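B., you asked whether I could sanity-check this one before it goes into the benchmark set. Here's the sequence:
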Amino acid sequence: MPVLTLIQPLFQNADLDRNQRTLYPLGLGYLAAYAPEHWTVRLVDEQLEAVDLDAATDLVGISTTTMTINRAYELADGFRARGVPVVLGGIHASVCPDEALDHCDAVCIGDGEPLIATILADAERGSLQARYHAEPGSLDGLRPPRRDIFPPGYGFLPVSTSRGCPFDCAFCAIHSFYGGRYRQRPVAEVLDELASLPKGHRVVFFSDGNLYGYSPADRARFMELCRGIASLREAGKLPFSRWTAYGSVNALDDVEALDLAARAGCLALFVGFESINPASLEEMGKKLNLRFGVDSYERLVRNAQERGILVVGEIVVGADADTAAVLAETAAFLERIDFDLLRLQILQPLPGTRLFARLQAQGRLHLRDFPADWRKLCEGFTMGVHFDTVAVPAKDLQHWVKDTGLAFYHPLRIARRVGRVLRLTRSPGLAATVAVMNFKSRRTHAGARL
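And here's what the prediction gave me:
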């Protein structure tokens, strides 16, 4: 039987390890589910084990993001040096296929499920094409991912209910990767998958770009999903107890939805507040945030926290409109808002985004030597400045992020935060988890090299 080896390369950033051992690469599990039965599929995740370049295999498939692309190319070059063909897929290879083809035999652009049988058949004949491109199709009837190929050792269990995002933020590549489409799986199929998940994980992480969505139909789907999860949970038919997801500010304004989400076991929502400066929000394409207004942020966070749902607030600085005065106002805002966890970073230009294209057209982008400069982006993903700034010098911006992060994660503030979580949730385990995550984030900011 021919062997397909699927590889998740390591995110090689020693200062930022938020994703290490957290989630397994769900996309590779979906590919395995669509591989023909006569192929043996092996999975190697460098988060947990080393890649053996001498392993016996007939084809290698490597998933890519910009943060892992240099390592992906190293692995691909190593396998090809001994005559093993390599296919690269994932978001980076999809938006930079010409670059990727310098290091592989074929590029899979877009969803891999409708392509993998053809790719493997071509590989068996020794006639791989350079490019395989799938148009976004319906997710109805999507096969469950092969979760049996993943070893133990991950913190959360990922589940996908949709692909794409209803929004088009200037700094996010999700919109272009999925061709501007926001596709959703039928709720009944998602609930069946949730009920059949393997035991051993306490928390499910919905990996969707936005679980709540934007339109009335999106909201109705979210409510249906939460009602279904709540019913299964109350009947004791779920192998997990809590879940987390990405959302947006409109989700925090919907108290009926938050009540239902809390009943369904929602542990935390990751929300992109991004900025308190309307001009910066306009630059980032955050129209929804502008509609709600930055004055609503504190109320929106309280809506979730009062229902026992933690809020992971995401703030991005470095927009052209982010003056020293805006940064000072942002620091004061972060003193007041007290997210349960803060993800604070400098604006990062990723390929495939409108931000990257604009900075490149303006001659302001520092990333010019590809693929070597992708390593710079990976190494400086939180506090690196990779373009000519307008309002604040790069070094001042970096020191502000480090100092503001350390202030947010001061031990006394962490203690107060943990105490609040304990009062709201009456869960010592959850409070302990919040403490660990806060101190881990403090170490990230303290150890950042500027």
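One thing to flag: The two ends are 51 Å apart (CA to CA). Otherwise nothing jumped out at me.
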